[in-house]
Amino acid sequence: MGFWKRAEKPAPPTTLDHVAWDQRELPDKELEKEGQSKGEVQRPHHVSSELERRVVRKLDLGVVPLVSALYLLAFLDRSNIGNARIAGMREDLDLHGNRYQWLLNIFYIAYIIFEVFALMWKILPPNIWAAFVVFGWGVAATLQAATQVWETEMVCRFFLGLFEAGFGPGIPYLLSFFYLRHELGLRIGIFLSAAPLATTFAGALAYGITSGHSAIANWRLLFLVEGLPTIIMAAVAYRFLPVSPEQARFLNQEEALVVKARGVRQVGDVSRIGGIDWRDIGATLIDAKAWITAFMYFSTNVGFSSLPVFLPTILEEMGYSSVNAQGLTAPPFFLSFLVTIISVYIADKTQQRGLTVIVMSTIGFIGYVLLAACKTVGVRYFGVFLAAAGIFPTIANILPWVLNNQGSDTRRGAGIAILNIIGQCGPLLGTNIFPSTEGPRYTKGMWVSAAFTLFTAFLAMGLRILLVWENKKLDQKHGPKSKISGRGATDPASMETAVCEENYGPNFRFVL
């Protein structure tokens, strides 16, 4: 049964129960290597705020930049087809009729089918799984440069979607093993901000490539330049992505104990990799909250998926040359990159994800209305800024909201899987509402994107009302939850009792 068997666990222990033995077992030579004696090692239940902040900083430097860089490459490899299209691919592969739409569709069909791969981050060591999927999509992305006919490009796009489905959707779930719930949103936001940054980079890179004259077609060179680094990064992921939080290479013995104490504080256990609970999966499937966030993700993805792949074409048909259209895609997405990080930071500080989603999706809605209703090029380009600055931050705040409001590791993973299976159907709609026959304004596509973006705001409002009601029920059942700072370590007494804060129980409350 191995990974799939539900483990029989005793009653949740205190933080001290899990970590005291580790201190007793620390070899003297290991302590000397760190410049400490056994008496100087602080017990995790007496962790100072500065020590915990040091551990979080190390996690920030050792985990977040790596997964963000990989996601940047993933988003670059999936969306550069929009740049390749106007760089000569349209003519060379004879992308007449709806052939280009099918190249977009086949990616998302594979992406949806294999969304369950998100749970693999809990079943397999993360470094092994990451290396496998990164190498797979890197090969598929690079081979696009060698395609001679549309059918071969379809195959490459299918496998690109298959392997990317095993990476991006599961990373927020993986980060929940490393960070407390009030820390998680910012790190997911930084990770997801790689998407608009990748689009900014794609525009600048495509501008540089397509403005020159290479020995091979510019669009083929684009796929090579952006695909080969991904293959190299597979080895980097295998070497440097931690197997688990407590086994991270960049932590010393004392810091590893702090990470274990944080794990107990989160879920009442140290080890979190290696199995799933099927009963929790069943419970998630009948949880309305999981489905509401999934449909929020679907609605936002209609615009999120279509804007990067169609924006170069939209700008070109506004009257800009192909080369200038490539360059003009960069500024709106760079703004989106900045707004994404700012919005998740504010949501973490205030623990108000619903209100953040409502504000961001409303901004995106206004942007799409300008694109749909206006004819002046300058106003429409301003609408692009608003649309990009609205939809990317909305996505970045929906994902941590899912993880914050499921009360076990398996339920968090199942929630992410449901979110992506439903949500990634949005791109199937989004990539089919901009037919070439409706250029240059693509009015229908803009109005549809505007409507779904506004629908996201209404869903967020409804979910927030539901969560307020459920928190009141929990207060009636367990009594009002005392206000805990939740920022760094607490005093020794509270550290011993702060167990399973993020799993269902007396200490659990939903994030609004």
Helix content: over 70%
Order of helices and strands: HHHHHHHHHHHHHHHHHHHHHHHH
Strand content: under 5%
Radius of gyration: 24 Å
Uncertain ranges: 1-45, 483-497
- Would you count the extended β strands for me? 0
Indicate the multimeric state: single chain
Q: Which sheet architecture does the biggest sheet show?
A: none
Shape: globular
Summarize model confidence as the mean pLDDT.
Answer: 80
Structural class: mainly alpha
Distance between the termini: 38 Å
- The total of helices stands at 24
What can you tell me about this protein's structure?
- There is one protein chain.
- The protein is mainly α and 512 residues long.
- The protein is built from 24 helices and no strands.
- The protein has helices at residues 15-25, 28-33, 49-62, 64-79, 81-92, 99-113, 120-123, 126-143, 150-165, 171-175, 181-192, 194-210, 218-240, 253-267, 278-285, 288-317, 322-328, 330-350, 353-373, 377-404, 409-423, 426-430, 443-478, 492-497.
- The longest helix is centred in the C-terminal third of the chain and has 36 residues, at 443-478.
- It is globular.
- The chain starts with 14 loop residues before the first helix and ends in a 15-residue tail after the last helix.
